[in-house]
Amino acid sequence: MGIDFHRLPVFADLRENYVKLLKPLIETIQCDAGEFVIRQDTPADFLYIILKGKVQISFKPYDGIPITVSHVESGGLFGWSAVIGSEKYTSSAIAIEPLEAVRIRGGELRKLAENDPDAGQEILNSLAGAVSARWKDARQQVKLILEKGMK
Question: In degrees rounded to 5, what are phi and psi of residue 113?
Answer without folding.
Answer: -65, -35
